[in-house]
Amino acid sequence: MNNFQPIQAQQIQIPESVKTGFENVGNTFNNVKSSVTESINQFSNSATAGVGASSSFLSSNTIIAKIAFLILVLIVFMFLVNLGIILIGYFITPADDPYIIKGMIDGTNSKVISQDPKSKDTVPIKRSNNQSSGIEFTWCFWLYLNDLGNENGKYQHIFNKGDNNFDKTTSISTINNSPGVYLGPQNNSLRIIMDTVNATDTNNIIDIENIPIRKWVHVAIRIKNTILDVYINGVVSKRLVLINVPKQNFNDIYLCQNGGFSGKLSNLRYYSRALNVFEINGVVLYGPNLNISETSSLQSKDYNYLSRQWYSQML
């Protein structure tokens, strides 16, 4: 028999102050929760508004980018067009400094270099570039003389730019010499004629004496305004001040006409400007081109080159 009596549970009484404290904590927690929720909602609303603003900003930037791209395309297109024009001009426009004869030909091998643009073998000669100092151009060539020439008292034709109407007594072109270069009769002199705008002008002739025989000699005919200079192997041989303005023509270039001369001609070249003394001496130092011209019947052979010191000592 169990002698222990059951203990009855006594109700625990919670003070009123504790209840009030718990209620205050609960209210505070609810207030914090409401505040956080409200802040999150406000941030979400702001973010939504920001997305709209960013979309507008990006849209406006896209328009600017399209315009900039179009401008860039136009710039590239214009650049390519200009480049194409330059390349076409490079391949079509005549050279400023063309070779009339590149290589070596025999002095008796007559030729006519056409100035007709329609001709297949044309070598167009551009007019002087007419700098601020006036008309200017240069003709250069290498000359090799075998002997003093004929005995009939006539000049021997080397080349002239003009026509082939020659005087029966002198064998010099009677109408156009722009320039004209001739070997003197029975002597080793060169006669150089430069036409002027005055058809009756007689102050247009230079004679160069003592041209060496059986040696290569470089000749440069240089015009600048009304000053005509002749260089022999890079050294000024003679100067002529023309009374009238030099005259250029559109006629053909004639080489070695009327039997030509006894010798060789190499690298006849035209420059549309007046070469300076350094450029002329650069050509001289390079020496004559002894390769046979494509249109020549010459056979390859050794030819002596005359040092420019030899000729300068003779001046």
Automatic annotation (TrEMBL):
This is LamG-like jellyroll fold domain-containing protein. InterPro entries: ConA-like_dom_sf (IPR013320). The chain crosses the membrane at residues 67-92. Pfam families: Laminin_G_3 (PF13385). The keyword Membrane applies. Keywords: Membrane, Transmembrane, Transmembrane helix.
